[in-house]
Design a protein that fits this description.
Largest sheet: 12 strands, mixed
Shape: flat
Radius of gyration: 27 Å
Strand order of the largest sheet: 8-11-14-17-20-25-28-31-34-37-39-40
Number of strands: 40
CATH superfamily of the largest domain: Hexapeptide repeat proteins
CATH topology of the largest domain: UDP N-Acetylglucosamine Acyltransferase, domain 1
Structural class: alpha/beta
CATH class of the largest domain: Mainly Beta
C-alpha cells in the first residue's frame, strides 16, 4: 500500500510543505529511514537526524524551526507524536479490514451470531449463544466460552481466552495469551487446615475502548462483575483479581498485581511491578510509582505515592535526601558528643 503526502496530510489534518505528490509505502525511524518511507520527529533529542534522514516524508510539529533546507516533504501538525499514532492506527485499521470470513478448521457453534465483515482465524472455538459484533477480528486459536458478547470493531489476537458469560465491549484490543474470566482466587480455610474452593459465578466486563496487553489475566468475580472501564489501558503481564474495578482511562504498566475487590478510580497511573492489596480504593488521578506496595486506601484525588509500603511521593524524596546525608550527620554528631564531654570535664 502506498500513500501520498497529500493523502496522509488529509488523514492527520496536517499541512504539507514540499511535494504533495511524493508517496511512501512503509514507516521508518528518523535515524534509519530510507527513501520511500515515512518518519516523524517529536523528541528534540533527535532533531539532528531531521537534516540527514533519507525519509521521503517527515511529520513534524508546527512549532519546529528549520536550521537548514530539508529535501524531504514535511507535514506539519500540532503534535507530531499524536499524529503519527493516529496514522499508524489508520494503517492498521485499513490492513485488518481486509480480513474477512471463517478459516478452517474452526468450531463455530450453531447458536453463535455474527455481524458483518467478521474474521475468524483457524482453530477458533466459540461456545453456545456467543454474540459477535460487526468488523470483529478474531485471530487463530482464540477460545470464546458460552454466552460471551464481543462488541463491534474489537480485535482478539492469537491465543486469547474469554471464559463464559464475559462481556467485551466495542473497539477493544486484547493481545495474545490474555485470559479474561478465569476463576478468582477464592478458598475458604477449613478446620483441618485444608481449603475449600469458593465457586466464582460472576463475570468480567471489559468496556469500550480498552486495550489489554499480552499474557494479562483478569479474574471473574465471585458474585457480580470484575470491571475494566472505558478507555483503560493495561500492559502485558498484569494480574487483576476478582471483583476489582479499574476506572476509565486508567493506565497500568507491566507486572502489576491488583488484589480482590479493590476499586481503582479514573485517570490513575500505575507503574510497573506495583502491588495493591485488596478491598481498598484508589482515588481518581492517583499516581503510583513503579514497584510500590500500596497497603491502604488512597483517598485524596491526584495523590502520588512511592515505596513499600507506599507513602507520599514528596515526603519519600525528602527522606531519600536525608538518608544520603546520614554519614555526614553521624560524623557531626560524634564531634558534638566529643565537645560535650570536653565541656563536662572542664566543669567538673
Amino acid at each position: 500500500m502506498t500513500f501520498s503526502a497529500a493523502q496522509i496530510a488529509l488523514l492527520i489534518q496536517g499541512k504539507v510543505e514540499g511535494d504533495a505528490t511524493v508517496s511512501v509505502a512503509s514507516f521508518g525511524k528518523i535515524e534509519e529511514a530510507k527513501s520511500g518511507q515515512l518518519a516523524f520527529l517529536a523528541n528534540p533529542k533527535y532533531e539532528d537526524y531531521l537534516y540527514t534522514t533519507e525519509a521521503s516524508i517527515i511529520i513534524i510539529n508546527e512549532s519546529q524551526e528549520l536550521k537548514k533546507p530539508i529535501p524531504a516533504t514535511l507535514i506539519r501538525v500540532p503534535n507530531a507524536y499524536s499524529a503519527f499514532a493516529t496514522l499508524l492506527s489508520k494503517y492498521q485499521e485499513f490492513a485488518t479490514q481486509q480480513l474477512q470470513g471463517v478459516q478452517e478448521p474452526s468450531y463455530i457453534s450453531k447458536t453463535t451470531s455474527m455481524g458483518s465483515n467478521v474474521f475468524i482465524g483457524a482453530f477458533v472455538y466459540t461456545g453456545e449463544n456467543v454474540k459477535i459484533g460487526n468488523n470483529v477480528k478474531i485471530f487463530p486459536q482464540v477460545f470464546i466460552g458460552n454466552n460471551v458478547t464481543i462488541g463491534d470493531n474489537t480485535i482478539l489476537h492469537p491465543g486469547v481466552k474469554v471464559y463464559h458469560e464475559c462481556v467485551v465491549g466495542k473497539n477493544v484490543t486484547v493481545h495474545s495469551g490474555t485470559v479474561i474470566g478465569g476463576d478468582g482466587f477464592g478458598f475458604a480455610p477449613q478446620a483441618d487446615g485444608s481449603f475449600q474452593k469458593v465457586p466464582q459465578i460472576g463475570n468480567v466486563i471489559v468496556e469500550d475502548g480498552v486495550e489489554i496487553g499480552a499474557n494479562t489475566t483478569i479474574d471473574r468475580a465471585t458474585i457480580g462483575s470484575t470491571v475494566i472501564k472505558a478507555g483503560a489501558k493495561l500492559d502485558n503481564l498484569i494480574q487483576i483479581a476478582h471483583n476489582v474495578e479499574v476506572g476509565s482511562n486508567t493506565v497500568i504498566a507491566a507486572q502489576t498485581g491488583v488484589s480482590g475487590s479493590t476499586k481503582i478510580g479514573k485517570n490513575v497511573m500505575i507503574g510497573g511491578q506495583a502491588g495493591i492489596v485488596g478491598h481498598i480504593t484508589i482515588a481518581d488521578g492517583s499516581k503510583i510509582n513503579a514497584q510500590s506496595g500500596v497497603s491502604k486506601a488512597i483517598k485524596t484525588p491526584g495523590t502520588a505515592v512511592t515505596g513499600s509500603p507506599a507513602y507520599d511521593y514528596t515526603s519519600a524524596l525528602r527522606a531519600q535526601a536525608v538518608s544520603r546525608n546520614l554519614p555526614e550527620m553521624e560524623k557531626r554528631l560524634k564531634e558534638l558528643e566529643a565537645k560535650i564531654k570536653e565541656l563536662e570535664a572542664k566543669l567538673s
